[in-house]
What we know:
By secondary structure, the protein is mainly β. The protein has helices spanning 32-38, 141-149; strands at 6-9, 16-19, 25-29, 43-49, 53-57, 61-66, 72-77, 84-88, 94-98, 112-114, 130-131.
Amino acid sequence: MVTFPQAGGCLCGDLRFELSENPISVYACHCTDCQKETGSAFVVSATVRSEAFEWTTGAPETWHVTLPDGRIKGSEYCPRCTSKLGGQSRFEGVRSVDTGAFDDTSWLTPPVHIWTRSAQPWIRFPEGALLYDQSPPDEDLGAIIRAWRHP
Ligand SMILES: [Zn+2]
Ligand SMILES: [Zn+2]
């Protein structure tokens, strides 16, 4: 059973944060932007209420990227060690936290995988996971939230 707050931070320790409540959703994104941005195969993101998230040490820098649909997305980095820790969301009042930044990642298994069409060919999706070949449609947001709360 996970308890809150859960703390995390960047690689060098200049940035530290605390999350005071359970995330709204947790998902893995296999899009090529996430692959490029991290130099890795995918990103696991927790969507959290902005009010439940607090920087306890340091302040991140924000890198803005223009998405294919014209939206501008901000990603937050440690200015010293360049760890990416999450960023803005297109939804009001929420933000994302990259789950690898938490000190304890054992409770953050993503029940949802998006942009599976650009996933690395060696990825095997867990049985029962919700899979989307691109971004999920807005009408599926309820199912994505329930997938995390009732795994
Ligand atoms: Zn750092
Ligand atoms: Zn992505």
